[in-house]
Amino acid sequence: MARPHPEEGFLMTTEPEVLDEKHPLLAYTIEKLAQRRFPTPDLARVVDRIALLHESVTVRKDSSLPLGPSNRLHTTCLAVTAPTFHGKTYSMDAAIESLTPVAVGDGQVIQKKILRYKCTPNASVGAFLNGLLRHAGYPANRDLPPGVAASRIAAHFQQEQFTLLAIDEFQWAINPAASPGRSREQDENLVWNTLHSIIDNVEWSTPTVVNGLPGIVDSLNHDTAERAAIRSRFDVMSMASMTIGHAKDAKDIVDLYCKDVGVTVAIHSDFVLGKRLTHASNYTLGIVLRLARLAIARAALRPDRTLTAKDFVDAYATKTGCRLQANPFHADDWPQIDPTLLMAQTADQRRTDKAEKVDEPRRSRK
Q1: Which of 95, 139, 273, 296 could disulfide-link 47, Cβ–Cβ 3.0 to 4.6 Å?
Q2: Which tens digits make up the pLDDT trace of 67-113?
Q3: CA angle 345-347-353, nearest 5°?
Q4: Is the pTM above the cut of 0.85?
Q5: What is the DSSP letter of 204?
């Protein structure tokens, strides 16, 4: 008697909720799918705008003179904002990947040198500044006081001459954990002033892009002299939510993902997969991508490599733990199902994962 296919046996004996995106049997397919970029209108806008920002590193005051410290315009800063899971990080990373060396115009070419930094949740302003400084290559063996770290950042960035600084999840930097002896406004001002010093450096002005929640704009518009100084140097780009009109885009994402990993789609058009997927994801691109990857990775495990509606039913149940009656990929009345359920569950899981990462060193010392 032939031995059963190990992956087939696994699927037959394991409950659906066990097969989440972290499971080793799914991880390879999900990571491969995550490498694909989709040309959404928002992504195209972000890619084009960051490309222009990157090129600004070579803009001269007088085009007839060589590029140099006295003949170089200061660059600006771009903030890409949207609610959670709307594709901010996805779009920024796609833009960074597409950047090329920058031609000065006199035959000189500046090779791209990009620094990407992800803010840590619930960290102090000192942790943010020291983390950014170390990530930029500064040889610090211990944390510096916040003010000292900020001044070292300005000098170090001038020395390193990055062609772009990209900061992910910037809302954590301007909403830091409390610092002893410092007010919230002092911490916020220090972060904004540090960015100002990076883009206003006389010797080397570094183009900068940050992404985060819409609260970034509220902080930037706060009525203080420090904020006013940098506000004129900031451009803000807000990303839009998906609508049910984007259902075809969601279905196209599924089709292209399946093509990437050799999976056949066996879902009837009457099922309106695109509409169900868009609604189930609370009209956010990030969750559309996550659900599609999880469903397709499950299908890729089976010998027939065929994607069915049940893969989406199980993927949604994996993420939410909901009953079938509340599953948009099972229920006939799916438009009436609250689409914020998955959003809340996914956010809760992200918070749990981050808390576990923070706690892991403590447990290892016991």
Answers
A1: 95
A2: 777 777 788 899 999 988 888 998 999 999 999 999 887 678 899 99
A3: 100
A4: no
A5: -
Q: Which two tokens stand for residue 313?
A: 């039913």
How large is the C-alpha radius of gyration of the chain?
24
What residue ranges in the chain does DSSP mark as E strands?
Answer: 77-81, 102-103, 109-110, 114-118, 164-168, 208-212, 234-238, 264-265, 306-307
Spatial distance between the Cα atoms of 17 and 227, rounded to a whole number of angstroms: 47
The answer to whether 114 touches 166, Cβ cutoff 8 Å, is yes
Provide the 8-state DSSP code for 218: H
What is the rounded CA–CA span in Å between residue 353 and residue 366? 20
CA distance linking residue 221 with residue 227, whole number of Å: 7
214-266 pLDDT, tens per residue? 999 999 998 877 788 888 888 999 988 777 778 999 999 999 999 999 999 99
Pick the closest to residue 82 from 74, 91, 71, 95 (CA basis): 91
Q: Is 328 exposed, middle or buried (0-12, 13-18, 19+ CB in 10 A)?
A: buried
> d(Cα 56, Cα 78) in Å, to the nearest integer?
12
Is 261 in a helix, a strand, or coil? helix
Tens of pLDDT, residues 238-249 = 988 777 778 999
Residue located via tokens 């170090």: 156
